[in-house]
Amino acid sequence: MIDLDLMTWILLACGALIVGLSKTAVPGAGALAVAVFAAALPARESTAALLVLLIVGDLFAVWMYRRDVDWATLRRLVPAVLVGLLVGAAFLGLADDAVVRRVIGAILLALLGLTLWRRRTAAQPSSGRAAAFGYGWLGGFTTMVANAGGPVMSMYLLAKQLPVRTFLGTAAWFFFAINLTKVPFQIGLGLLDARVALIAAVLVPGVVLSAFAGRWLAVRISQRLFDRLVLVLTAVGAVNLLL
C-alpha cells in the first residue's frame, strides 16, 4: 500500500518531528510542517496524513494543560469556525490537487506576511465579536484546507491577553476539538483512507519522540533564533508550492 521513495520518507519524518515540537515547544513551527508534508505528498493527501499526526500531538498538549482553559473564548469562536470548516470542506471537494497546492502556498505566505507585519508594527488585533467571527472563520477555513489555522488563532488569543498557561490550554483544546471535527470531512472527501492512515501510523513515533524532546528543549533553545529559522523555511516551502 505504501510506495514512497526514501527521500519522501525522510521529508515526512522531518515533518512528523516538527509536528511534535510545534505542540510542546514552538507553536509557530506548525506552518513549516504543512509545507514539508505538501512537498512530500500530493497536496490533498498531505492534509489528511498531517491531520492524523496533529491529533496525536494535540493529545500531549491537552494532557499537559487540561486544567488551563478559557471556555468562554472557545464558545465564542464555535459558530464562525464551523462556517469556515464547511467552506473549506466544499473547497477541498471541488478543487484539484494543483489548486490546493497553490492555495496552501498562498495561505502560508499570507500568514507569514501578517506575522512579520505584526512583529514590525507591534500591532494587536481586535478581540471583540467581529474579530471573533473574522478570525474564527479564517481559522476554520485555513485549518480545513491546509492545517494552517495555528497562526490565525494564535493572534486572536494573544489579543485576549490570557495568562501563558491559559493561552496554551485554550489553544490545545481548541485545536484538539477542531482536528477531531475535521476527521469525518476528510474521510467523506476520500482524503483519509487506509493508505494515508498507514503512512501516518508509521510516522507517529516521530511525533511522540519530538513532543517529549520539545518539553526538554523549550527552556534551552533561543526562541528568537528558532522563530526566525521557522519563518525563513516556511517562506521557502510556500514559494516552492506556488511554483
UniProtKB/TrEMBL annotation:
Positions of transmembrane segments: 48-65, 77-94, 100-118, 130-150, 162-180, 192-213
* Primary subcellular site in the record, as a coarse category: membrane
Q: Please report a single Pfam family linked to this protein.
A: TauE
Location within or outside the cell: Cell membrane
Q: Give membrane topology per the record.
A: Multi-pass membrane protein
Q: Which UniProt keywords apply?
A: Cell membrane, Membrane, Transmembrane, Transmembrane helix, Transport
Q: Does the keyword Transport apply?
A: yes
Please tell me whether the keyword Transport is annotated for this protein. yes
In the record, the note on similarity to other proteins reads: Belongs to the 4-toluene sulfonate uptake permease (TSUP) (TC 2.A.102) family.
Name-wise, this protein is: Probable membrane transporter protein
